[in-house]
Specification:
Blueprint (H helix, E strand, L loop, with lengths): L1 E5 L12 E9 L2 E8 L4 E2 L4 H6 L12 H11 L4 H12 L2 E2 L8 H7 L1 E2 L1 H14 L5 E12 L2 E15 L2 E5 L12 E7 L7 H10 L2 E5 L1
Parallel strand pairs: 5-6
Antiparallel strand pairs: 1-3, 1-11, 2-3, 4-9, 7-8, 7-10, 8-9
Helix pairs in contact: 2-3, 2-5, 3-5, 4-5
Length: 214
C-alpha cells in the first residue's frame, strides 16, 4: 500500500489492472491517496469500438507494416504470445538509450534503440498486428536502483493487453517480470501524437508527487 500526496487538490488516480484506491482526502494544501498495487486483472470485455481502437494504426504504430506482420506471425505461434512479444522487443532493442524523443515503431526497427517508450511502442504494434488489442500506459515503476539510489519510483511507459480473457500488464522493458505491485498508472497514452493531453497531464503530476510506503 502506498501513500501518495500531491499539491494539486484535484489529484486523483483511476482504479486499474495494477491498482485500487483505498481512500482519498482533499484540502487546500493538496490531495492524499492510499493506493494498493497488485494484480487486479480485469475482464477484457471490449466493445467493438474499443477493439477497433486498440488494434488500429496510429502515427506511432503501424501493425500492417510487412516487417511488423512478420514478427507478429512468429510470436503468434508461441503458447504465450504476449510474453513472446515482450521478449522479442527486449532482445531487439540493443541500445537502451534514456531520454529519446518518442519514436515510431518503424524508427525503432531501424535504430534498434530507445527507452521504455520505444519498448512500449514496438510491443503495442506487434501485439496489434497479431490481433491482440493493446494500449500504452504512462506512469511510474518502482526500481530497485537508479542513478545511485535504491527503491525509487521512475517515470515509465508500458503496455496492457488481454490474455486468457483478462487485461494484463505487458512490459518489454522488464520482459518476463510481471510484478504489478511495482507499477502506478497515471494515464493511457493514445500513441496518436507524441504528447497527447492525457499524457502531458500525467507527466506534470509526477513533478509534485510524494510516494511513501503506508
Amino acid at each position: 500500500v502506498w501513500m501518495i500526496s500531491s499539491s494539486l487538490p484535484s489529484f486523483a488516480l483511476a482504479d486499474g489492472i495494477t491498482q485500487k484506491n483505498l481512500s482519498r482526502s482533499e484540502s487546500a494544501a493538496g490531495a492524499k491517496l492510499r493506493l494498493r498495487t497488485a494484480d487486479f486483472s480485469s475482464p477484457a470485455a471490449l466493445s467493438a469500438s474499443d477493439r477497433e481502437t486498440y488494434l488500429a494504426s496510429t502515427r506511432f504504430v503501424h501493425p500492417q507494416n510487412e516487417q511488423i506482420r512478420g514478427i507478429a506471425k512468429r510470436i503468434s505461434r508461441e503458447k504465450d504470445p504476449v510474453l513472446a512479444a515482450e521478449e522479442f522487443v527486449s532482445d531487439f532493442i540493443v541500445n537502451k538509450e534514456l531520454g529519446m524523443p518518442l519514436a515510431t515503431d518503424l524508427q525503432v526497427l531501424s535504430l534498434r534503440a530507445g527507452d521504455c517508450k520505444e519498448h512500449a511502442v514496438l510491443l503495442v504494434s506487434i501485439l496489434r498486428s497479431a490481433g491482440i488489442p493493446s494500449r500504452a500506459v504512462a506512469g511510474m515503476v518502482l526500481l530497485p536502483s537508479f542513478a545511485g539510489r535504491t527503491n525509487v519510483f521512475g517515470v515509465h511507459t508500458w503496455a496492457a493487453a488481454p490474455a486468457e480473457g483478462e487485461w494484463l500488464l505487458a512490459d518489454a522493458t522488464f520482459a518476463g517480470q510481471r510484478r504489478p505491485n511495482r507499477y502506478i498508472a497515471l494515464a493511457n497514452h493514445s500513441l496518436k501524437t507524441a504528447s497527447p493531453l492525457d499524457y502531458m497531464d500525467a507527466v506534470s503530476r509526477i513533478q509534485n508527487l510524494a510516494v511513501t510506503r503506508d
